[in-house]
Design a protein that fits this description.
The complex is a heterotrimer.
Chain A: E1 2-11, E2 14-24, E3 29-33, H1 40-48, E4 55-60, E5 63-64, H2 70-76, E6 78-81, H3 93-100, H4 114-120, H5 122-125, H6 137-149, E7 155-159, H7 167-180, E8 185-190, H8 193-197, E9 202-207, E10 210-216, H9 217-222, H10 224-230
Parallel strand pairs in A: 3-8, 3-9, 6-7, 7-8
Antiparallel strand pairs in A: 1-2, 1-4, 4-5, 9-10
Helix pairs in contact in A: 3-6
Chain B: H1 19-34, H2 40-66, H3 74-91, H4 94-116, H5 121-141, H6 143-146, E1 152-153, H7 163-185, H8 188-198, H9 200-205, H10 210-236, E2 238-239, H11 246-259, H12 266-284, H13 288-302, H14 306-332
Antiparallel strand pairs in B: 1-2
Chain C: H1 2-32, H2 39-57, H3 63-85, H4 95-117, E1 134-136, E2 139-141, H5 143-165, H6 167-177, H7 179-184, H8 189-211, H9 221-236, H10 241-261, H11 266-280
Helix pairs in contact in C: 1-5, 1-6, 1-8, 1-9, 1-10, 2-3, 2-4, 2-8, 2-9, 3-8, 5-6, 9-10, 9-11, 10-11
Classes of the chains: A alpha/beta, B mainly alpha, C mainly alpha.
The structure holds adenosine-5'-triphosphate (ATP) and magnesium ion.
Residues 11, 14, 16, 34, 36-42, 83, 160, 191 of chain A line the site of adenosine-5'-triphosphate.
C-alpha cells in the first residue's frame, strides 16, 4: 500500500536521505530500525510531506504523494505520530482529539470515534478536560496516538513511541499497538529494537541515511551479528 | 519542534570580488566632476549619492553582516540632521556639528538599541520602527526647537560654498567612514557579527554575548547613520521632518536590496542606483513609493539576494556556458 | 469624580479601537508566523473605503452602516487575495525576507491610497442616531464612543467564543503552537492561513471604519496604528489574544489619562510603558517564553 522509491531528502544543503526505498503492505507492521540520527524521522517526514524529498517518488495506494501537501496525504489515509509527541499543550485532551477528528467514507461503521478511542485509552477518558501540556510523558504519548487514530488512517507512521517512557508504560503501549495493528498497517521507527521486533512482521535497518538491510522480523531476532552491527539492545 | 528553514540571508559575505564595483562606481561619479563643466545639479546629485552610500553601508553592518533588519534608521540619520543643523545655527562650526550630529544619534542608539536587541529579530524589526516613529513625532511636534513642519534653514558654510569643494569634502568624509566600516567588518568583531548572522544559536552556545554584540553594531550604525545626516544638513540647506520620516528609513533598505546585502559594496552600488532611479522616476510621477514598492516586491519574491544576486547568477551562467563552449571546442579540435 | 469617569470611558473607546486592530495583527502572526507590517495599511484602506461608501451614498442616512458592513469585507477580500497570491510564497523563506515583503506592501498600499483618494483629507459624518450624546451612568458621553465600546466588547466576546468553543477556533489555537502538526492531522492549512489572514484584515477594516467619523483621514495613519499594534503586542505578549485585549485596555487608559493630565508627554507614555515591560517582563503580559 505504501511504496517509497529511491527518495533523497535534504535539510538545506545537507543531504540526509540517500536513495531510501521501502514498502509497507496492507495489514503489515514494518519496523524501521537504526541508531540515533540515521534518518528514521526524516524518512517519516518525507512520506508525510513535511520535508518533501528532492528526488524519488512515494506512492500510496496507487496515488503519487511526494508532491502533495501534508494535509492531502493525511486525508488519503496516512496518520502520523511524531517523535517527541507534539501534543497541542494549550488545548485539552478532548480538544486535541476534536482538532484531528476526521471520518472517512471507506471506514463506515468501524470508525475510530472519540468514545472508542477513550475505551482503548482509559487513562485519557479519566481526564478529557486536562490541558495536554499538563500531562505526563506517557499520557502525552497515548494522546498523540489517540489523536492520530480519530483521523481514521489506514496506515500509521509511528515515530519512536517508546522513547523516554517508563518500562511499565512501554508494556501498556505495546498492548495498545497490538490492538491497533489488527485494523491498521503500521510503519514503526524505533531505536528500541526489542520493542519494535515484538510487534513487527518485517524490518528495515537504516544506517547514515540509507536502508542497509531488510529482513523478516524473526530473522533479525535470531541473527546476533546484525543485532551487534546495527542495533542497540 | 524541529524547523527545517534554511537561511539564505546569511551566506558568506563577499567583498574582495566586488571591490571593482565600487571602483567603477566612484570613478563614474568622480570623472564627470573632474570635467567640472557639468552643471552643479549633477555635482549635487553625486554628493547626495556619496552621503547615501555612507548611510547604506552603516545600515548594512546591521542587515547584511549581522542579520538584523532595522526599519528605523531614519531616527539616527534624522537626529543627525537636526542636531547638526541646530549646532550650525548656534555656533556655525562644521566640525562641532559633525561631532554632535554623530554622537547624539549614537547615544540615542544606545538607549533604543538596548530595548531593540532585548528579544528576537522579530522584536528588533518592530521596535526599531516604533522608536523611529517616536523621534519623528517628537521632531514634528517640538516646534519651538525644530520649527515643526516648516523645518530649519541651515546656515551656509562659507568655505564649502562651491558645490565641487563641498563634494570633495563629502567624498573624503565618506571614504574615511566607509574605510572604518571595512576595518570593522574584517576585525574579529566583524567575524563575530557574521557568525551571529549565520547561526545565532550556535554563536550564543559558544559563549558569545550576542545581545551585546548586536547592540554594539547598532550603535556603530547609529553613529555613522547620524554622521551621514549631520553632513546632509548643511548640504541640503533646508531641513524638514521629512528627513526623519519612515520613508527615510526605507532608503537604506531599498539600497541594500538593490545592491545586495552580501557584498561590502552592495549598498554603495545600491545608493547610486537608488538616487539615479529616484531622480528619473520623480520626473514622471509622484508615486515613486509605489514604483519602488513594486520593484522591491518583485526582487524579494524572485531573487533573495537582490539585483546583484541576479547579475551574479547571470554571470555564473555565462561563465559556465563559456567554459562549456571552450571545452567543446577543445574536444572538437 | 465625574471627570475621571468620562476620561475612563474615553480611554475605553480608544482601547476597543486599538484592540480591534491589534487583535487582527496578533492573530495573523500567531497562526501564519508572519509579521504583517502592512496591517496598518489595511486599516487605512478601511478608513478610505468607508469615506468612499459615504460619498457614494450621498446623504443617505444609512451610509455609515453600509460602510461598516461593506468596507471591512472588501479589506478582508483584498487581504485574502494578497495571502493567496503572494504571501504564501514566502512562508518558507528567511524571516528577514518576510519582513521585507510585507514592508513593501506598506509602500504599495499607502501610495495606491494616495493615488486613488488623493491627499484630500476627509472625515465622514456621524450617523444620525449618534448625533446626540447619551446620559450614561450619570455622565454625558458621546453615544458613538459608547457604541464603539460595546462593539469592541462584542467582537472580543465573539472571538473568545469562536476560539474556545468552535472546532475552527480550536484548530486556530492548535495551529498557533504547531502549524506543521495541524497540517499533518489533515487540516487544510493553506485555506486556514488565507482565512485567518482575511479575518485579521477584516478586523483592521472594522477598526478603520469605526475611526472614520472620529478623525480626518491622512496618509500616514496606517503607520501610526501599526506602531500602536507593535506596542500592544510587546506589552500583551506576541501572538496572545488575551494579551492584546489587556494591553489595548492599558494603553487606552494611559492615553486618555495622559491627554487629560500630561498632554505634552502623552505620546511618550506608551513607549515608556513598553520599555518598562521589556525590562521587567520581556515576554509581555501573556507571551510565551520563547519567540
Ligand atoms: N532540521 C534539521 N536541519 C538539519 N539537519 C537535521 C535536521 N533534523 C535532522 N537533521 C539531521 O538529519 C539526520 C537524520 O535525522 P533524523 O531525525 O531523521 O534521525 P533519526 O534516525 O530519527 O534519529 P533519532 O533516533 O535521534 O530520532 C541527523 O544527522 C540530524 O542531525
Ligand atoms: Mg527520530
Amino acid at each position: 500500500m505504501l511504496k517509497v522509491d529511491t527518495i533523497n531528502t535534504y535539510y538545506g544543503s545537507s543531504h540526509i536521505l540517500q536513495d531510501v526505498s521501502l514498502t509497507v503492505n496492507q495489514g503489515e507492521v514494518v519496523a524501521l530500525l537504526g541508531r540515533n540520527g540515521v534518518g528514521k524521522t526524516t524518512t517519516m517526514r518525507s512520506i508525510m510531506g513535511l520535508t518533501p524529498p528532492r528526488s524519488g517518488e512515494v506512492y500510496y495506494c496507487g496515488h503519487k504523494i511526494n508532491t502533495l501537501p501534508p494535509y492531502r496525504i493525511n486525508r488519503l489515509g496516512i496518520g502520523y505520530v511524531p517523535e517527541d509527541r507534539q501534543v497541542f499543550p494549550d488545548l485539552t485532551v478532548e480538544e486535541n482529539l476534536l482538532v484531528a477528528q476526521r471520518s472517512r467514507n471507506s471506514k463506515k461503521g468501524e470508525e475510530w470515534t472519540r468514545e472508542k478511542v477513550y475505551e482503548l485509552f482509559p487513562e485519557l477518558a479519566k481526564m478529557p478536560n486536562r490541558l495536554a501540556g499538563r500531562m505526563s510523558g506517557g499520557e502525552q504519548q497515548m494522546l498523540t496516538i489517540a489523536r492520530t487514530l480519530v483521523g481514521n488512517p489506514d496506515l500509521l507512521l509511528l515515530d519512536e513511541p517508546s522513547e523516554g517512557l517508563a518500562p511499565k508504560v512501554v508494556l501498556n503501549l505495546l498492548d495498545v499497538l497490538k490492538v491497533i495493528k489488527k485494523s491498521i498497517s503500521i510503519l514503526l521507527a524505533e531505536q528500541n529494537a526489542v520493542f519494535a521486533l515484538s510487534l513487527a512482521d518485517r524490518c528495515y535497518i537504516m544506517e547514515k541515511g540509507k536502508t542497509v538491510y531488510e529482513a523478516a522480523a524473526e530473522e533479525i531476532r535470531e541473527n546476533k551479528d546484525i543485532q551487534k552491527k546495527y542495533l542497540i539492545f | 519542534m524541529k524547523k527545517a528553514i534554511h537561511s539564505p540571508a546569511c551566506g558568506e559575505v563577499k567583498d574582495s570580488l566586488y571591490s571593482w564595483g565600487f571602483v567603477i562606481a566612484v570613478t563614474t561619479v568622480a570623472i564627470p566632476l573632474i570635467f567640472s563643466q557639468f552643471p552643479p545639479y549633477y555635482i549635487k546629485l553625486a554628493s547626495s549619492i556619496m552621503i547615501m552610500i555612507l548611510y547604506g553601508v552603516s545600515f548594512n553592518l546591521l542587515y547584511g553582516y549581522t542579520g538584523y533588519l532595522s526599519f528605523g534608521q531614519a531616527a539616527y540619520f534624522g537626529s543627525g540632521v537636526y542636531v547638526s543643523a541646530l549646532i550650525l545655527r548656534s555656533t556655525s562650526s562644521l566640525p562641532l556639528a559633525l561631532l554632535g550630529g554623530s554622537i547624539a544619534p549614537a547615544l540615542l542608539a544606545i538607549v533604543f538599541g538596548y530595548f531593540c536587541v532585548k528579544r528576537s529579530k522579530l522584536y528588533f524589526a518592530m521596535l526599531t520602527l516604533a522608536f523611529a516613529q517616536l523621534i519623528y513625532t517628537l521632531i514634528f511636534k517640538w516646534r519651538s526647537l525644530t520649527g515643526g513642519d516648516d523645518g530649519i534653514v541651515v546656515p551656509r558654510i562659507p568655505y564649502l560654498h562651491n558645490p565641487l569643494t563641498f563634494y570633495f569634502f563629502i567624498l573624503a568624509l565618506v571614504l574615511v567612514s566607509v574605510f572604518i566600516h571595512w576595518v570593522i567588518v574584517h576585525s574579529p568583531f566583524g567575524h563575530m557579527l557574521k557568525s551571529i548572522c549565520q547561526n545565532q544559536e550556535r554563536t550564543e552556545f559558544i559563549g558569545v554575548p550576542v545581545e551585546k554584540q548586536v547592540l554594539v553594531a547598532f550603535i556603530i550604525a547609529g553613529f555613522f547613520g547620524g554622521l551621514a545626516g549631520a553632513i546632509y544638513a548643511p548640504f541640503i540647506g533646508v531641513i524638514s521632518p521629512k528627513l526623519v520620516h519612515w520613508t527615510m528609513s526605507l532608503t537604506p533598505v531599498i539600497m541594500v536590496v538593490f545592491g545586495g546585502a552580501k557584498h561590502f559594496w552592495g549598498p554603495a552600488i545600491g545608493a547610486i542606483v537608488y538616487i539615479v532611479l529616484k531622480d528619473i522616476i520623480t520626473l514622471y510621477t509622484d508615486n515613486w513609493l509605489l514604483v519602488f514598492g513594486l520593484m522591491l516586491l518583485i526582487i524579494v519574491l524572485i531573487s533573495p539576494r537582490g539585483v546583484m544576486g541576479v547579475l551574479e547568477n547571470i554571470g555564473t551562467y555565462i561563465k559556465k556556458n563559456i567554459t562549456k563552449a571552450n571545452l567543446m571546442k577543445e574536444r572538437i579540435n | 469624580m465625574e471627570d475621571q469617569f468620562l476620561i475612563l470611558l474615553n480611554g475605553l473607546s480608544f482601547a476597543m479601537l486599538l484592540f480591534l486592530v491589534s487583535v487582527g495583527f496578533t492573530l495573523q502572526f500567531s497562526v501564519l508566523g508572519v509579521l504583517n507590517l502592512a496591517h496598518g495599511s489595511f486599516y487605512m484602506l478601511g478608513v478610505f473605503l468607508a469615506i468612499t461608501v459615504a460619498m457614494f451614498m450621498g446623504n443617505y442616512a444609512g451610509n455609515f452602516w453600509i460602510g461598516l458592513l461593506l468596507a471591512p469585507l472588501l479589506v478582508a477580500a483584498f487581504g485574502a487575495f494578497l495571502e493567496w497570491s503572494l504571501l504564501r510564497r514566502i512562508y518558507i523563506r528567511d524571516v528577514l525576507f518576510q519582513y521585507l515583503f510585507t514592508y513593501t506592501w506598506i509602500l504599495i498600499i499607502d501610495d495606491l491610497v494616495l493615488m486613488i483618494w488623493g491627499a484630500r483629507y476627509s472625515i465622514i459624518s456621524l450617523p444620525p442616531i449618534f448625533s446626540a450624546p447619551v446620559n450614561f451612568l450619570g455622565v454625558t458621553f458621546s453615544s458613538y464612543r459608547l457604541f464603539i465600546i460595546l462593539l469592541g466588547l462584542l467582537v472580543a466576546g465573539l472571538l473568545w467564543f469562536f476560539l474556545q468553543k468552535t472546532k475552527a477556533g480550536m484548530i486556530v489555537r492548535a495551529a498557533s503552537v504547531n502549524r506543521e502538526m495541524v497540517g499533518a492531522l489533515g487540516v487544510n492549512t493553506p485555506l486556514l492561513f488565507t482565512a485567518v489572514f482575511a479575518l485579521g484584515a477584516w478586523l483592521a477594516g472594522v477598526g478603520g471604519v469605526l475611526v472614520a467619523p472620529l478623525q480626518t483621514a491622512y496618509a500616514g495613519m496606517g503607520l501610526d496604528i501599526i506602531v500602536d499594534c507593535f506596542i500592544v503586542v510587546v506589552i500583551g505578549g506576541m501572538g496572545s489574544i488575551k494579551g492584546a485585549f489587556w494591553a489595548a485596555l492599558t494603553l487606552g487608559m494611559l492615553r486618555a489619562f495622559g491627554i487629560a493630565y500630561v498632554p505634552q508627554v502623552e505620546m511618550a507614555l506608551s513607549y515608556l510603558l513598553m520599555a518598562v515591560i521589556l525590562i521587567i517582563r520581556p515576554r509581555g503580559f501573556f507571551g510565551r517564553e520563547e519567540a
